[in-house]
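Dear H.,

Thanks for agreeing to be a second pair of eyes. The structure we're designing against is below in token form, covering all 526 positions.
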């Protein structure tokens, strides 16, 4: 459920959790260390962050999200489409495909494109992109082997249509000599595709050792620039301390999964480049509304937080941090549509300790106990942030115990059982206008872990998802911000810049949460 409004921005997904290591034997290959191995290599099906990163190695869309190496800017470029022509009705787009092959040597055809879009829209696949694509696209039909006609539901300008097409990675309609089932969990052939896929991308799948690593060989026939590294291995290394040790020893060339608290120590290591960018992501504390059913009590918690003071040296610095006033990052308009709006999002829950204490009494929060959990993967920074929140909530009489949990336990309690009381979250995987955020707040949203249910908010998101006029979209965004602030199902904290540490690699350009957008340009330093 993603949407793009402005001319120069585009939809970029998925959180960066990858570290790149150079092979010591001849430096012909790179190894990517991830905290969690991918759960599926099929881009149509639901995937975790590691898998979303890997999609960029294996697959292409009709258009791709790219990074300009000279400026670091994000843009959308033609990929499997050699030409896209908009019709006079501004809804119909005729796409001509390039001449290229799948990794097994068979030719890409329009049948593959039609199959792919139908697979994304097939309810049985539960694709995370289904609702988004369905909100835009009316039909996809093949004219001949190399021509596809895509009809959008409403007139749409090219600068918005191209990022929509980039959302859908194209998969083959045939695999192992058999037609792929539209239900991609239906038979053994399509199930095997999820663990040993073929695509058109810069790297070809080679081997998956479950629980250990996934290995890829370079696609020497890639239609764009062929990567410099002959192999790339995605290896599971859970402990972030081990990754930092490997960097210090010179065995890791690039770490994308970083902790804000590590930067001072990393800066002391010789020959390490630190590159930073602002991700489409934020930190918040989710509130289980079953445990805290009174909105005034939840508002009290929000107004008790002096967010800049939560982690001294990180949240109180002038650069690299955005203190968030509500569900959207406060600089949403300034970073996406500055030609329309430059002001920060309104703050309906300003820090006001006296008012917070009064609301805590009327909202049944004062003199209560609660447990705030955070996951192992958040490391020391997660501990500092959680402890900072707990310390400040004491001021309104809420006694909070902070507990660090293993990632599996955390995920079970927060996302499956919803048995937590307070949970520190790092929310990522958004596009530039946070268009999928509705899944966190709709009454039956896939990512609604707080239990919030509000008909007015559902209606606002319905309108917001279908709005194509920027002025109206801005107004609806402000209404959503206000309504969510009134309901207050979470404590909104901040967006922090993400650091990328590189050593021994050149031409590494990171401008989004997706680790591998510029992988074709990476090279080993001599």
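And this is the sequence the design step returned. I haven't edited it by hand at all.
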């Amino acid at each position: 459920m993603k949407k793009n409004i402005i001319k120069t921005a585009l939809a970029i997904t998925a959180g960066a959790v990858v570290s790149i290591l150079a092979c010591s034997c001849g430096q012909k290959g790179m190894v990517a260390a991830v905290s969690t191995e991918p759960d599926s290599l099929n881009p149509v099906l639901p995937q975790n962050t590691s898998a979303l990163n890997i999609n960029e190695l294996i697959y292409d869309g009709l258009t791709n999200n790219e990074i300009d190496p000279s400026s670091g800017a994000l843009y959308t470029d033609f990929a499997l489409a050699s030409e896209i022509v908009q019709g006079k009705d501004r809804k119909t787009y005729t796409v001509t495909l390039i001449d290229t092959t799948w990794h097994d040597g068979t030719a890409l055809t329009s049948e593959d494109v039609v199959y792919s879009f139908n697979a994304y829209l097939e309810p049985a696949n539960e694709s995370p992109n289904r609702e988004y694509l369905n909100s835009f696209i009316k039909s996809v039909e093949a004219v001949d082997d190399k021509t596809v006609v895509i009809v959008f539901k409403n007139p749409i300008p090219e600068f918005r249509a191209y990022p929509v097409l980039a959302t859908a990675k194209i998969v083959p309609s045939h695999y192992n000599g058999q037609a792929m089932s539209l239900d991609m969990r239906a038979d053994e052939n399509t199930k095997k595709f999820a663990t040993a896929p073929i695509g058109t991308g810069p790297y070809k799948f080679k081997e998956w050792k479950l629980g250990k690593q996934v290995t890829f060989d370079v696609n020497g026939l890639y239609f764009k620039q062929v990567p410099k590294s002959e192999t790339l291995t995605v290896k599971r290394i859970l402990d972030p301390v081990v990754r930092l040790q490997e960097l210090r020893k010179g065995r890791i060339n690039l770490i994308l999964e970083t902790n804000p608290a590590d930067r001072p120590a990393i800066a002391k290591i010789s020959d390490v480049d630190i590159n930073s960018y602002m991700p489409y992501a934020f930190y918040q504390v989710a509130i289980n509304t079953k445990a805290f059913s009174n909105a005034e009590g939840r508002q009290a918690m929000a107004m008790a937080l002096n967010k800049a003071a939560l982690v001294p040296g990180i949240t109180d610095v002038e650069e690299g941090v955005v203190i968030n006033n509500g569900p959207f990052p406060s600089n949403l308009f300034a970073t996406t549509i500055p030609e329309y709006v430059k002001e920060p999002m309104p703050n309906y829950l300003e820090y006001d300790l006296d008012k917070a204490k009064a609301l805590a009494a009327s909202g049944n929060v004062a003199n209560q106990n609660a447990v705030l959990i955070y996951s192992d993967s958040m490391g020391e920074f997660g501990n500092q942030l959680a402890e900072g929140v707990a310390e400040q909530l004491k001021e309104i009489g809420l006694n909070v115990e902070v507990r660090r949990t293993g990632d599996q336990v955390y995920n079970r309690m927060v996302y499956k059982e919803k048995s937590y009381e307070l949970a520190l979250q790092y929310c990522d995987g958004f596009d530039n206008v946070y268009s999928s955020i509705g899944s966190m707040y709709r009454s039956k949203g896939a990512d609604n872990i707080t239990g919030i249910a509000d008909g007015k908010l559902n209606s606002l998101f319905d309108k917001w998802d279908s709005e194509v006029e920027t002025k109206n979209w801005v107004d609806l965004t402000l209404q959503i911000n206000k309504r969510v602030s009134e309901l207050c199902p979470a404590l909104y904290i901040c967006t922090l810049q993400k650091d990328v540490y590189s050593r021994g690699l050149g031409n590494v350009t990171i401008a989004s949460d997706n680790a591998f957008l510029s992988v074709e340009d990476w090279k080993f330093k001599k």
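Two observations from my side: Confidence is low (pLDDT under 50) at residues 1-26. The first helix runs from residue 49 to 58.

Warmly,
E.
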